[in-house]
Amino acid sequence: MFDRMKLQVLANHARSAAENMAHTLQRTAHSAFVKETEDFTVMLLNRRGETFGVPMELGATWYPGLTYGRAIAMIEDYRPGDVAFTNDPYSGFVATHAPDTHLWKPVFHDGEIIAWTGGHIHNTDMGGAVPASLSRALTEIHQEGIRFPPMKLVREGVFDEQILRIMTTNVRKPDLNIGDIKALVGALNTGERKILAMVEKFGKTAFLDGVDALLDHAEAQARDILRAMPDGQWVFADYADEDSVAANPCRLKLTLTIKGDEAILDFTGSDPQLASSLNVPSGGDPRHTMLLVGVYYVLYTLNPKILLNTGLTRPFTCITPEGSVLNPTFPAAVGMRSLTCARLRSVIFGAFSQAVPERLPAAPAGNNCIVNVMTTDERNGNRIIAAVNPVVGGGGGMPHRDGTNGSGADAAYLKNTPIEITEMETPVEFVRYGLATDSGGAGRWRGGLATHMAFRVFSPDTRITARNRDRGFFRPWGVLGGRAAGLSDMVVNPGTPGEKRLGNIDTAVLQPGDVLDIRSAGGGGRGDPFAREAWRVAQDVARGYVSAAAAEREYGVIIRDGALDTAATERLRSGRPSPTGHFHFGPEREGYERQWTPAAYDVLMRTLDGLPIHWRFFAKTEIFSRMAGRSGADGVEAALEEVYARFPEMPRSKALIREAAE
Amino acid sequence: MDGGMGEADWKVGVDIGGTFIDFCALDTRSGRVASLKVLTTPDDPGAELMTGLSLLAEREGMDPRAVTRFVHGTTVGMNTVIQRKGAPLALLTNAGFEDVIELARLRMPDTYSLFCSRPDQLVARDMVFGIPARLRSDGTERQAPDMAAVADAVAALRAKGAVGVVVSFLHSWRDGGHETAVKEEIARLAPDLFVFTSAEVWPVIREYERTTTAILNAYVHPRISGYLSALEERLAGRAVPARPLLTKSNGGVMNAAEGKRACVHMLLSGAASGVNGAAWLARQAGEPRILTLDIGGTSADFALIIDGQAQFGVGEMIGEFPLHIPSVSVSSIGIGGGSIASVDGQGVLRVGPESAGSTPGPACYGRGGEWATVTDAMVVCGWLGHSQMAYGQLQMDAGLARAAVGRLADRLGRSLEATAQAILDVAVSEMFAEVEKMAARAGVDVRDFALMPFGGGGPMLGVFLARELGMPRVVAPRWPGVVSALGGLVADLRGDFVRTLFAELSPGLMPALREAFAAMGAEGRDWLAAQGHSGAAELLIVADMRYAGQSYEIETPLNPSWLDGDDPGAIADAFHAAHARLYDFDDPDGRIEIVNLRLSAIGSGPALHFPTAGEDDCAASAERTVPVYTGGAVTPVGLYRRADLQAGARFQGPAIVAQEDTTFAIPAGTDARVDAHLNLHLTFAE
Predict the structure, then answer these.
(1) pLDDT at B389 over 60
(2) CATH 3.30.420.40 domain extents, chain B
(3) Dihedral class, residue A77 (left if φ above 0, else alpha if ψ from -120 to 50, else beta)
């Protein structure tokens, strides 16, 4: 048994080792994804491949609960100096889309594997149908780039040149990939050294016991948080704007059950797997780290001293029916799963918000849009593929302050690149980069503002991808009287005769002189906006965060000639009833749900669940295309009848067969 | 050297800390050294300085008229930022980019928390004015500044009470013309406003970093300027002939006229002076590689000294804001003597980040503190409490410490002493993690270093930390409490200059490199001349380089001879080597970019000789033994008075060394020796 009183000593050594790895990787990497956006992770893994240490200061926030066990087991005969890797989302469910290349290295002590070091980098491109390997339009994993199942990349300290050559042949920016992979190998070596130093300090047995104790400790902390919540069941659904080029919403539904110190997250009722790349490959693992990212945020927000490791996933059980968007079957495309993951987090936030309303914020903007440019540098003729700034929105209004502007909450790990650096390296010229007025949800505590970025290009057929753009229709929701936030948008040549709104399309082809204008959503508001101090609203107006018109409309605050009109404000504010209901979704979702009522979705999901997996998305799309003028359960049934009439080949849904039998 | 002959010639270093103002003075004629601590007077900054001069006159016979060097480090600038009492400012920047400081670099601290946030900016958004103007990245003009918009902005910002303006435009690192033109227009329209442009403060690429640095400069400018004018008057009133010199964040000094303009260069001078003093002491003691450890009540500061030199970095924090001029690299962690220990729901002990600070302070101070702190744990173990502390201003109450730690021991079901030891172990492991991280960033192995503890708390925990880190030795100065003041006393004049080049290293670039360094060298010499320096100038040149595509530069010192000719090979080799040293690999075929060129112009400070004593090996004798819980048992430990330890004295741990400003805790297995400079050298047996 490790002396629990001194567990923090071991925890500090583990964190220190992980942060050493992160610093080594970040500063030696070559690609913008790793060095600037910090889309990477490093971790310490126990003998079973479960994460027991992650850095707190650098890297992405999705992987403290990741377990490499399945991938580790797919290779035999590890030797000292070996490094294994995979980027295949369907081999071991470690990588969750092809650009994410995961590496792991055994740490030997006296000839025995006592731990592993691991981590991932997001490669700029892994080949496949489109630059950067990611597009919502892709429909099967084979289009998303070359995939390496778990195999050894380094054998006893020597890189496998064949693998590197295969990768070099198949990807668009091989230098970046290989530079980053080598940087990650350097980080794994650093971690190995640090683990061996810990073994030396604490002794092998104490180290192994201590690592187990770290996981047990995180588990106990997570259970404490759950125990402090009321027992109960809460249902929440949220939507991604579009499920594919078919452009129907993709719904995620969560039934959260908290009982004592455990929680069940049942995602039954979420959409079937999609014929687009928005699927989240969880493999049905009830504690897959991607399913629990929202939970990490909730736990950490409620107890910032919680240890982040696999132990905190133990009290949680996720249910993701096979063939659903959260547990797709091979060969469903998964490249853009991060868009769905953002919705997944907001579904979890919404469910927990009902369980402990006084302790959590409103919805964050939830569209972590990464903008890539492929163009020609007219100064030298070079082809350039570059990531421009992420366009993310604000955090949701908090119980004690406004949401943060331009970023925050579950997007706070993203970094931007200075305009001056981007303009030096990439032939684009920024027109604006700032915050969007009136984009934060109104509330006692206002939601954070959206980011608004526009830039001009100079070369013909410049291709833009704006991945993960969402919230162009379904707004980030407000809570406890707070209002939903502003929507995201993308426009070519705004304010000109050639203006073209792209809606939710995530790609564009620009010609010389064209300007692309991208706006994120904002964060949702929290609490009654009429309860916000008038001086705060006036300050928001002075700062350009809120327009005078919105101040009057949303907050009941009158600003005349830049000054607060106290008397008029009091008149306007008095007598207004307090808002009711936990959530405010905005007119778009309210309108949508008048047609697509909970009962309508029940019929739809029952029907789709009764079909073979490869028919479900087709059936969903066909039903949606016949819903004009229809609504509710009856509407769905009528549409379904039409679909069967048009496609007699479609198998009878088991749900219908059962109903008929009853 | 015998004292008392001829006229005195005093050199004085003064450093203001949180609680005390420290003096370190040397009479170069007699070799007399004086040190002093005086409580600060936050309400009247500068008054304590005069008190100190009076006390030095009374106690040490220091005639103010004999002070020929007066070096001052002040926290006025830092406090202005932390307390947010700086000048109301406006920012003029390109229209469309008004949120440059709010967006910053987007990423926030504490990324796992839904409550993470950025600090409120020093210039609120309603004081930011977008001016239609745009320079392209190649330096050509897309749009000249709209002076009508400038006039509107000036009218509005005056109406809103701004007293100063920062002008920062995109790509001014390449051409500051737009900024200068707008500055001139503001001066024409409103001569009473002070104006700083981003390029004049620090003309480096990256708009947020450059802008925020200029804002910090302007924000503290009126207060620092006023403080320095008052200081000059006060010193003149005492007939001090020396013109004051100010310590800088780069470890050097500058004169007051420069300090009033380039305020931002002194914001981190306190920590920098400490490292500078430590570096000087390390050179005296013949120690090339030092890890400094300065522990106060709420935090611990660490820095590396390599080859006797402080290390530099950018991005150090001023309160909540990063500063992007080169500063002595100091890492900080919120663990100090006042850090509070607690037990969580699962029986795991934690230390910090909460702190009892100086009020109420640790329980043992008897000022109403009830929480068990690191200092209380030291008392319970028996390391502290055997003598007066802080020049007799503190008395330890061991009973209160035992009561506070006892409450945790009860919860843990462990003995009082074991609990106290665990508190120390956890505190040390927190520092361990911070040092390891710093070492990882710097690419060094701290086992090649000796630890130099200073400040009030450094000697308490320093030896434990050194052992945790696997360091072989500890070297402690005679007066750990005034190392920062000493650092100022011995500092060189040092001016830093930067130019962003952002170009690929190639034979064709060599003429441009030579030209740039020649121009910067001339600038540096002019700067030294303006500081009144007449001796030789040392010019250090550095290139911030990276492989094309990387986003972080490595500062690579260049030998001037490498600039000759058309072959950049030597420069490239130096970069590859630096990259390999820092990051374990290099890419000999990789393209190299030079982002910034930097030059430091250095005018040597006075060559000061502190007295030394002959080292006659002798066994020191303990005043008495006291019981201390160490190594899992209560052991009799020798208590030594620092004042009694003469050069050459030797003794062995476990031991306690008490002195007026601190106490050393020295565990078993340690050999201690006092050198000719009265430094204490601790060597570990294993």
Answers:
(1) no
(2) 1-73
(3) left
Within 8 A of A412 by CB-CB distance, chain B residues are 107-108, 110-111, 116
Nearest to A16 among B97, B347, B437 (CB): B437
Given an 8 Å threshold on Cβ–Cβ distance, is A23 in contact with B437?
A: yes
Question: Quick check: helix, strand or coil at residue B37?
Answer: strand
CA distances from B575 to B521, B554, B568, B592 (A): 22, 8, 11, 8
Residues B656 and B637: beta-carbon distance below 8 Å:
yes
Q: How far is CA A570 from CA A531, A547, A565, B344, in A?
A: 11, 19, 9, 48
Least confident residue range of A37-41, A595-599, A610-614: A37-41
**What average pLDDT is seen over chain B?**
91
Phi, psi of A52 (to 5 degrees): -120, -5
A19 touches chain B (CB under 8 A): yes
- Which of B550 and A159 is assigned the larger pLDDT? A159
Q: Are A27 and B99 within 8 A, CB to CB? A: no
> Which residues lie across from A104 on neighbouring strands?
A84, A118
CB atoms within 10 A of CB A231: 11
Give me the pLDDT at residue A241, please.
94
User: What CATH class has B82-224?
Assistant: alpha beta
- What's the per-residue H, E or C state across B562-629? HHCCCCCHHHHHHHHHHHHHHHCCCCCCCCEEEEEEEEEEEECCCCCCCCCCCCCCEECCCCEEEEEE
Q: CA dihedral in degrees (B122, B125, B129, B130; nearest 10)? A: 120
Instruction: Provide the 8-state DSSP code for A410.
Output: G
Question: Is B94 within 8 Å of A419 (Cβ atoms)?
Answer: no
* ipTM of predicted assembly, 2 dp: 0.94
Overall residue count recorded for chain B in this entry = 686
**Secondary structure (3-state) at B27:** strand
Angle, vertex CA A376, rays to CA A374 and CA A379, nearest 5:
145
Torsion of CA A222, A223, A227, A233, to 10 degrees: 80
pLDDT (average), residues A583-593: 98
Question: Is B135:B142 a contact under the CB 8 Å cutoff?
Answer: yes
- pLDDT value for B6: 56
Residue A510 has pLDDT above 70, yes or no: yes
Structure-derived torsion over alpha carbons of residues B52, B58, B60, B65, reported in degrees to the nearest 10? 80
Chain B closest-CA separation from residue A92 CA (Å): 26
Largest separation between any pair of C-alpha atoms in chain A = 80
Q: Residue B122 pLDDT > 90, yes or no?
A: yes
Nearest to B76 by CA among B68, B85, B67, B88: B85
Say if residues A186 and A40 touch (Cβ distance below 8 Å): no
A7-16, pLDDT tens digit by residue?
999 999 999 9
Residues of chain B with CATH 3.40.50: 82-224
- Tell me whether residues B441 and A429 touch, CB distance under 8 A: no
CATH fold of the domain at B1-73 = Nucleotidyltransferase; domain 5 (3.30.420)
A-B contacts (CB, under 8 Å): 225
DSSP for B341-374, please give it. Answer: EEE-TTS-EEEEEEE-TTTT--GGGTSS--S-BH
Question: Which residue ranges make up each domain of chain A?
Answer: 4-220, 362-528, 596-661
The helix/strand/coil state of A500 is: strand
What tokens appear for A647 in the block? 């496609």
- Chain A contact for B614 (CB, 8 A cutoff): no
C-alpha distance from residue B183 to each of B92, B142, B193, B223, B344 (Å): 10, 19, 10, 21, 56
**Average pLDDT of span A606-617:** 95
Q: Which of A34-48, A322-336, A565-579 has the lowest mean pLDDT?
A: A34-48
pLDDT in tens, B605-653: 888 888 888 878 899 999 999 999 998 999 999 999 999 999 999 999 8
